[in-house]
Amino acid sequence: MTAKELKEQLFLSQKNGRLEASEETLAAADAFCEDYKWFLDNAKTEREAVKTSIALAKKAGFSEFCPDKKYSCGDKMYINNRGKAAAFIVMGKRPVIEGVRVTAAHIDSPRLDLKPNPLYEAEELALFKTHYYGGIKKYQWTTVPLALHGVVVKGDGSVVEVNIGEDEGDPCFVVTDLLPHLAAEQSKRTLNEGIKGEELNVLIGSHPFRDDSESELVKLNILKILNEKYGMVEKDFLSAELECVPAYKARDIGFDRSLIGAYGHDDRVCAYPALRAAMDIKEPEHTVIVVLADKEETGSEGNTGLNSAFLKYIFMDLANMQGVDGYKVMRASKCLSADVNAAYDPTYPDVMEKRNASFVNRGAVITKYTGARGKSSTNDASAEFVGFVRNLLDKEGIAWQIGELGKVDAGGGGTVAMYIANLGLDVVDLGVPVLSMHAPFETVAKFDVYMTYLTVLAFSK
Ligand code: MN
Ligand code: MN
After folding, report:
1. In angstroms, what is the span from residue 277 Cα to ligand 1's centroid?
2. Around ion ligand 2, which residues have CB less than 5 A away?
3. What is residue 49's predicted lDDT score, i.e. its pLDDT?
4. Confidence band of 14 (pLDDT split at 50, 70, 90)
5. Which of 87, 181, 302, 461 shows a CA-CA span of 20 to 30 A to 77?
6. 31-42 tens-digit pLDDT
């Protein structure tokens, strides 16, 4: 045997998946990603993601889950958790006591939330005060066109939906920044402090209400517009959730169109493939649950996050329906925590350890553990469960890779995996490598998106 042959037999080889993929696979990936781009543009916030996902699921035959009803194999149900999180269930051939296949992704993304009392006027400009949501590099959010999405609950209890800045004809909004000519002092700040939290103020107008010598006429005119359009008064901001997100749409990147740039890939890039897998499955062996969670970017706390009883009670309902104990169902179940990892960026190699980094175009990335400081705050998946997923992927011919989130002690992060592990399920992180994660414009490879879809499909069927 030659060294070359022996190497092929013994060495781990991690290759660009596009090299070995068939033309049909690459064409299918492109087609899948056209649908994904549409989803990105129509699901920029957790609320819109829930709305859009349920609308798609209904078309695919899902109906609202009723815990008192009996369901049988092939039945498809959805659960809407307060309009901000959702679950999709496909009943399997086997009873739930033999285990359920869960895929969990999140549909919230880093952004600028309006403060409860956001509107003010300064030197005849009207602005919104914001409090950023999730981990952002604040300087990236200045001089980017922003749209405003969310809901306002008015004094009479009625709810107004807001979506301004997405249509071509809409105005948009912006956080201004200093010109370089006068940024001598600002430039001495560290990158982290380059733009401070209280400097993320969104410019929303400059035209004064033309009448008399009253003060705050620009603010008054803004409120007049909001009152005419939404029937709201300033006090209504106190009971609102309004989010500033980048106003542009998803686009292909590269001469070869092999990549997609967009706001909010993390984690729609796993949420959409998971949803599509649930929609495309007919009669799975095990019952399938796809959860699309809120609040992941702020630690999964709150009743729409996965550190709540949301998923646990879905198990309870399914178990009750079949007359078994919920905890036994959870203990027998398996979960893919579908979330992104950091793709190796050749411009910033110092934070990565090449042998254990994930690369664009190498397929879905299995992340055995996340966390920081010596594997703290993470679900470290067992060898047995990683082995199970690995064998499944190899059997199905799906391109995959293993990845850690950067070098040891370079930083760290977390996902929903540990909260699901706490329920007693076997769980591992798996998803798409992302360049510029958490930036207003993130980049992924179409091939990896499609491999993640095939993974969830194989895991669920
Ligand atoms: Mn994520
Ligand atoms: Mn994230």
Report:
1. 19
2. 266
3. 98
4. confident
5. 302
6. 999 999 999 999
